[in-house]
Amino acid sequence: MATLPSQIRIAELDYDQILANLVEFMKADPTFSDYDFSGSGLRLLSRVLAYVTFYNSYYLSAAVNESFLDTAQLRSSVVSHAKMLGYNSHGTRSATYTANVTMVMSNNAPATITLPKNTQFALQSNTQFTFYNVEDAELIQNTSNTFIYATSNVTLVEGRTAQYRFTVDTNDPTQRFIIPNANVDFSRLTVRVQVSPTVNTTTSFTEASNLLLANSTSNIFLVSEAYDGYPELKFGNGIIGKALENGNIVIVDYYISRGAAGNNIRGPFRINDTIAGLQQGVTDTPDANTTPSIGGSDIEDIENIRYLAPLTYAAQNRCVTTEDYKSVILQDWTEYISAINVFGGEEGDPTDAKERPTYGRVYIAVRPKYGERLTQATKDAIIQNTVKPFSIVGVIPQIVDPDYVYLIISTRVSYDPKATVLTKQELVTAVKDAVDTYSNENMEKFETSFRFSRLGRAIDDADASITSSLTQVEMQKRVVPLVGKSNSITVKFGAALYKVGDASVLLEPTSHRFDYYDHDGNYYTNCFLQEIDGVVSVVGYVNSGGTRSLVVVDDRVGTIDTDTGTMVLANFKPEAIEGGEIDIWISALPLYSDLTPHLNRLYTVDYDTISVELIDNTTTLTPSNFYQGGRIR
């Protein structure tokens, strides 16, 4: 009596193991007891069966993975799941630049002239970058030179203009309105619908912001990503939104963008277009204070979509919790924002000197990707267009700038020169890069603490030749006063300050000092702030008889609380800042080794201020009173 073959093992997913299981299964059947599975035709059949099994298992595994947002790998799958959660991924976005425009005309008759929408501006230093004004702009005649016309705050958008047309065929149920370009700026589509090829009447359609307000006659459209980053337009069905009619021509004007490559451009630009009577058209020459082009981004990364889609769904189109605010803002402004923190006024008012609670407010601290602060226009746009439509009644949202505290890192590194192939300068650079990497990975965000021990570890691990290090961390505030005018300024270090005996808790700077008049009208240069018994005064050096001595220029310009690290300056009137700079640097040592930010405070490291001193550990070391760290919390 023949024995039944054993059951085949089906748990393996590897091709070779599947093949081995098939062969083992068939060998167990007496029917195939005399077959040679290594060289017979049955071997080929076994391989085919193993391949089919392996292919099906891979297909089913991949299909199951693509069925969930967390495990999907294809962009189209991630985008589709995000849509189900109410999140629309964005494509490439164009950078914007706010410019002051001056035009020299051959005719001075009109008092004003109009700069037409989509006039091309080319970057003078690189004509590959072109920008266009998004709206008509009115330029006003100069009273001194009537051939010159000028205006300010013209919004320019990066890219090149393009147009695509669709002819509506209502008899084709599969028709889709997809623009075949992955670099289209989704946010700046202009859509018009022409009645027919023979009737040129057009109607403007706008992107829907709230479908609850739409009816059967609303001229609206929706835009979303179709596949490969291509934008797809969808129109109404006659119930929600006006339906298109057979033979209509959909005309779409858009910008083809370079994405993130268009950021951080300051101009100047010249008008590179034909305008009647135009002799020359330029934007202002930028300086260090000019805000560069911002907001450009490449097609949204699938990991960002995966992260934001559940947050958007949880927010349910309303801002109640802090995470709601973050998700709503990041959905529209991800390309602008490097870090964001949202907190209620009950936690403290960052605009108050003592940070006392203010109820009924929500504060939104935003660190931009470019520059240190958002422009007022960007703040207003975030509040009015993004936050307020979803915020609840009775709560006032307010965007506040980050309160930067710069950590000035000075380190003495002991190393063995025989244990490294790096030169001294290369080793210094390696240590500075290690500090910078630590800052970027562990700080630079709201609500992330500075840990002194981890910084020391990062320095010691910068190169195998480093045997030990001593590091000093200063906290520095950078104040921008009105020069030549009286200032009232609150400076918040945000931590207790280290004070030794009667010495000033404020450190003597070597740069970014200021000039000051004393009460008798005497002028002093390179002055700085000094603290004695909690009172802040202005001091400076004078040379008399070959002796350099420190004198008090103004004995009381403010007070400082060393326990909280808060300094209040009143009637502070600097006349000029050293080196033509715009800010005064004020430094102090922290009492504690670790620093934890609060509210809108953010710790950061300025790479240019990192100081590294190398010490050869093969030589005799002298005693050092170099301050390291502070108390452990």
Question: What is the helix tally?
Answer: 8
N→C terminal distance: 82 Å
Which outline best applies?
globular
Proportion in helices: 10-25%
Number of strands: 30
Percentage beta strand:
25-35%
What's the alpha carbon Rg, rounded to whole Å? 33 Å
Describe the structure.
- This protein is an alpha+beta fold.
- Helix content is 18%, strand content 32%.
- The chain is built from 8 helices and 30 strands.
- It has helices at 15-27, 41-65, 75-84, 302-315, 322-333, 376-387, 424-442, 452-460, and strands spanning 96-105, 112-115, 120-123, 130-133, 137-141, 148-158, 160-167, 177-178, 190-194, 202-207, 220-225, 231-235, 249-256, 269-271, 278-283, 337-344, 361-368, 396-400, 403-415, 466-479, 487-492, 514-517, 523-532, 535-544, 547-561, 566-572, 576-577, 584-588, 601-604, 611-616.
- The strands form 5 sheets. Strands 1, 2, 3, 4, 5, 6, 14 and 15 form an 8-stranded antiparallel beta sheet that branches.
- A hairpin with a 5-residue loop joins strand 11 and strand 12.
- The longest helix has 25 residues, at 41-65.
- It is globular.
- The model has no long low-confidence stretch (mean pLDDT 86).
